[in-house]
Amino acid sequence: MSQGRCSATFATAMMLCLLVLHSGVAEAAIYRVGGAGGWNFNTVSWPSGKRFRAGDTLVFSYNPAIHNVVAVNKAGYDSCTAPRGSKVYHTGNDQIKLVKGANYFICSYQGHCQSGMKIAVFG
């Protein structure tokens, strides 16, 4: 009888451990930058009110003939310039996974970033 009780206690403990581990794992979310309008002018405030996490994916939808997406550092974001070696995306449907901490993106076409085509997202 005591062996059955130990087995039941062990099984219950294992189930509780699995439940706790599973509840702590959040699934990554997918966000379309700019909403229905996509990556365009005046998207600078788009991240407001959203809760991002490292591993979430941002989808940048835009016309690649007139826009791009450049992953930049804070200085590049603030000055609207793409530092040497910045990753440039130009497919028109770019999917970028957020890293932990600050993630900065701009459009490097002349005047676009200055017109609000930039976002700062913290994962």
From TrEMBL:
Q: What Pfam families does the annotation carry?
A: Cu_bind_like (PF02298)
Which stretches make up the Phytocyanin domain? 29-123
Q: Which keywords does UniProt give here?
A: Copper, Disulfide bond, Metal-binding, Signal
Q: Known InterPro entries for this protein?
A: Cupredoxin, Phytocyanin-like, Phytocyanin_dom, Plantacyanin
Cite the Gene3D superfamilies for this sequence. Cupredoxins - blue copper proteins (2.60.40.420)
Q: Which GO terms describe its molecular function?
A: electron transfer activity; metal ion binding
GO cellular component, as recorded: plasma membrane
Which superkingdom does the taxonomy of this entry point to? Eukaryota
> Where does the record locate the signal sequence feature?
1-28
- PANTHER family, alphabetized: BLUE COPPER PROTEIN, PUTATIVE, EXPRESSED-RELATED
Name under which the protein is recorded: Basic blue protein
Which organism is this protein's natural source? Answer: Coffea canephora
